[in-house]
Amino acid sequence: MRTEIFINHGIHESRIAILEDGRLSEIWVERPENERMVGDVYKGTVTAVLPGLQAAFVEIGHERTAFLQVRDMIEADKGDSDGSRNGRRSRHRSYPNIQSLIRKGEKVLVQVTKEPISTKGARVTTQVSLPGRFMVLVPGGNWVGVSRKIASWNERRRLRDLVTKIKPDGYSVIVRTEGRNQSDREFKRDMKQLVKNYDRLTKANKKAQAPALVHKEMGMTSSVIRDLFTDNIDRLVVDDKELYKEITAYLRQVSPELRQRVEFHRDRRPIFDAFKIEEEIEKATNRTVWMRRGGALVIDYAEAGTFIDVNSARYVGSDDQEENNLNTNLEASREIARQLKLRDVGGIIVIDFIDMNEERNRRKIIDRLIDEFKKDRAKVSISDRVSEFGLVEMTRQRVRPNLLHTHSEPCPICSGTGRIMGPDTTLTRIERWLQRSYAATREKRYVLKVHPDVASYILENREERLKSLRKATKARLQVETDTSLGPQDYRFFSTKRSLDVTAEFRV
Question: Taking the complete model, does pTM exceed 0.85, yes or no?
Answer without folding.
Answer: no
